[in-house]
Design brief:
CATH class of the largest domain in chain B: Alpha Beta
Order of helices and strands of chain B: HEEHEHEEEHHEHHEEHEEHEE
CATH topology of chain A: Rossmann fold
Oligomer: heterodimer
Helix content of chain B: 40-55%
Number of strands of chain A: 5
Number of strands of chain B: 13
Helix content of chain A: 40-55%
Radius of gyration of chain B: 32 Å
Strand content of chain B: 15-25%
Structural class of chain B: alpha+beta
Strand order of the largest sheet of chain B: 3-2-1-6-5-4
Shape of chain A: globular
Radius of gyration of chain A: 13 Å
Largest sheet of chain B: 6 strands, antiparallel
Strand content of chain A: 15-25%
Number of helices of chain A: 5
Largest interface: A-B, 9 and 12 residues
CATH superfamily of the largest domain in chain B: Histidine kinase-like ATPase, C-terminal domain
Number of domains of chain A: 1
Number of helices of chain B: 9
């Protein structure tokens, strides 16, 4: 799952994820609220990995995590979250590390190596 | 941050009321004919009087004395209060050039400190005949000296914030310029690539197009940051601004947008306000621009600019019947680069309302947002009464 408000970035993520050869299906949302609505649906397909942007309109990446944990609990997606952002603020990195499900923090742009690394966490 | 005594306005600087008030107060409170704030200048081996009360004409003119001729030197030298009952008997003064005919016999000098604790001079009180200073009197003098040190600390804080603002401005300009130039280079690269159009796949052409759009947007964003930075520290001129003429001009500029929005715009009779014409224009341009932009599909769009006289000024409101702002989002709208919508729905860099907020702050008035989240938005400003 990718959550990022930037349509061009979303388009490129899809291509990179496909090129990595290790990703089957991608669900993408431009607004964090839409992703929350997705998790609310009965029998939604659970994503293995969420790539989550920080700076987004209305609800930012951290607000999304807080809202998801509040509503669905710590294991809201039985998955890992990777922050994917242009933020250079060390405070953002620090804040991200306080969420148990956030396993890494990648700076944009996303690379195939990033994707492979993220997938390797699933088998750890 | 460190500032020199010159930068703090404590050496070779004009007298200031805020210091003179305390000198005068010290003289009255301790009932002495002469009081001053002395600042030690060790480089030029002199004492400079930043503030003085009751000095003889000649000294009042020159405002300084060679260090060795003063009692005051002993305050920064010892870093402690100097309490002199009778100068003729005081160990610091006996046999020194400071002790000459006609000098005061009683003297009380309390340290004045720079932030960080260094004693830079003293608040000093003196009288011609001898005097036994009570503990109570010394304690009162210390309280006033504390106020003098506080004034210096405040000035240091003010200078620090000035310096930071200055550095921040220089930084913003530098970084904006440094971002603008690679953006321009990219623009040229995309133009060159486009010339190869016939050899490229549809996919590649699509990427070139996206690339151009992105670089274009970056240019706008950098420009917006620069505008914001300029407004941040632009000196505010205070002129009489006729909001009727101002809003008229803006509506003329926005004619195309109004037509495209199919909107009706109603404007009340608006007041004269005091402010900077450029910044006022920026304020109303952004508010009216936003009011036109955030419209609800399928609803006849209306924008109004209205005014009402208040007891101490005028309320001016820019209102629309568009999509509104949810109450829980309202605290975000003035934040720099904050946006509530995706760019393909409502364009913008998220800087407009930050600018409005800044203009309001520069002019010392408040700007408030009011919306139920679905039937429109109103921004209200409370302008103070025009001074007559």
């Amino acid at each position: 799952m990718t959550i990022d408000d930037e349509p061009v970035d979303q388009m490129i993520y899809k291509r990179v994820l496909k090129r990595s050869g290790v990703v089957d299906t991608v669900v993408d949302f431009q607004l964090a609220e839409e992703a929350l609505a997705y998790f609310r649906q009965q029998d939604h397909a659970r994503p293995d990995i969420i790539f989550l942007d920080i700076h987004m309109p209305r609800m930012n990446g951290f607000e999304f995590l807080d809202a998801a944990i509040e509503e669905f609990g710590d294991d809201f997606a039985e998955c890992i979250v990777i922050m994917l952002t242009t933020s250079l603020d060390p405070a953002d990195r620090e804040r991200a590390s306080r969420y148990p499900m956030v396993l890494n923090y990648f700076s944009k742009p996303l690379t195939v190596e990033n994707v492979q690394q993220a997938v390797s966490y699933l088998y750890d | 941050m460190h500032f020199t005594l010159e930068e703090l306005g404590l050496l070779d600087a004009p007298a200031e009321q805020k210091f003179d008030n305390l000198t005068c107060l010290a003289s009255e409170l301790l009932d002495v004919p002469v009081a001053h704030i002395s600042v030690a200048d060790f480089k030029k081996n002199r004492i400079f009087y930043k503030s003085q009360y009751g000095h003889p004409d000649e000294l009042a003119q020159s405002r300084e004395l060679p260090m060795e001729l003063t009692y005051c030197q002993h305050v920064p030298l010892t870093g402690a209060p100097v309490v002199v009952q009778d100068a003729r008997l005081h160990p610091l003064l006996i046999g020194t050039p400071a002790l000459s005919e006609g000098q005061p016999l009683a003297y009380l000098g309390i340290p004045v400190k720079a932030p960080g604790g260094r004693v830079i001079g003293g608040l000093c009180m003196m009288q011609p005949d001898e005097r036994r200073w009570s503990t109570d009197e010394v304690s009162r003098a210390q309280k006033i000296a504390g106020c003098v040190s506080d004034l210096i600390r405040l000035e240091t804080a003010r200078l620090s914030s000035e310096r930071l603002r200055h550095e921040q401005r220089a930084f913003t300009y530098a970084i904006s310029h440094d971002l603008q130039s690679p953006a321009n280079t990219l623009k040229m690269i995309f133009s060159e690539l486009e010339l190869e159009g016939e050899c490229l796949s549809q996919d590649a052409l699509m990427f070139i197009e996206k690339g151009r759009e992105t670089v274009q947007r970056m240019g706008v964003q950098v420009q917006d940051v620069l505008t914001y930075a300029r407004t941040l520290d632009a000196p505010v001129t205070r002129e009489c601004v006729d909001l009727n003429a101002l809003v008229d001009g803006i509506l003329t500029d926005l004619e195309a947008d109004i037509r495209q929005a199919g909107a009706t715009v109603d404007v009340d009779d608006l007041p004269l306000v005091e402010g900077d014409p450029m910044q006022m224009r920026m304020l109303f341009q952004n508010l009216i621009g936003n009011a036109l932009k955030f419209r609800l599909a399928g609803r006849k769009h209306r924008v109004s600019v209205s005014a009402s006289a208040e007891r101490q000024g005028h309320r001016v409101t820019v209102q629309d019947n568009g999509i509104g702002i949810r109450p829980e989002d309202q605290h975000k709208v003035f934040g720099l680069f904050n946006r509530l919508h995706l760019r393909d729905q409502y364009a913008g860099t998220g800087i407009g309302l930050s600018l409005c907020q800044r203009v309001a702050e520069n002019h010392h008035f408040a700007i408030e947002v009011d919306s139920d989240g679905h039937s429109g938005t109103a921004f209200t400003m409370q302008f103070p009464e025009m001074p007559v």
